[in-house]
Amino acid sequence: GAVVSQHPSRVICKSGTSVKIECRSLDFQATTMFWYRQFPKQSLMLMATSNEGSKATYEQGVEKDKFLINHASLTLSTLTVTSAHPEDSSFYICSARLAGGLGEQFFGPGTRLTVL
Amino acid sequence: KQEVTQIPAALSVPEGENLVLNCSFTDSAIYNLQWFRQDPGKGLTSLLLIQSSQREQTSGRLNASLDKSSGRSTLYIAASQPGDSATYLCAVLDSSYKLIFGSGTRLLVRP
Predict the structure, then answer these.
(1) How far is B103 from chain A (nearest CA, A)?
(2) What is the largest CA-CA distance in chain A?
(3) In terms of C-beta density within 10 A (0-12 exposed, 13-18 middle, 19 or more buried), how is residue A4 classed?
């Protein structure tokens, strides 16, 4: 149980286009999902916290107009990278927290974004 | 601001060795600490979760300890195998319910 999926697993796009990444909790409901970014050989950096039915909370330094987050249901959160540029190329990972406050987070397999 | 540090950054050992990975955090006000494994280009696999009230957790050949007051955790891997080669990440759930990650230890177990 507690499986989180991401789609797509890998995407290559041209500079200036927008890319949408989906994060789904397959067998549980997640009132809270998280989006992380990971540069090569570096750790995960929290970008934003996504709460079902409300606006996402962004970490300092993360542009909310560039990284649009929508958490429309208890099993789906989406991250849209708008007007992508090469510096946005990274590994994006989502996680979902079991309902209950301090529940363990379960991580998706990640999405490799390459912007040409 | 919570900061998590992992030492060493990289480790190479021959198969069969027992090894210890270290994690330290600056603020002892945490809810729990997790150890994860990450294979190249992949997501995270949770290995062990230690609640703040606990001292250690064990799963198979893995044992994780937590000393909250001193801000330290160790991950002990017994009888290492080549399949254990991966990056090991430590993360603490801080007082604002956010997971703060260390930079990881890249482990290579040589056959």
Answers:
(1) 4
(2) 41
(3) buried
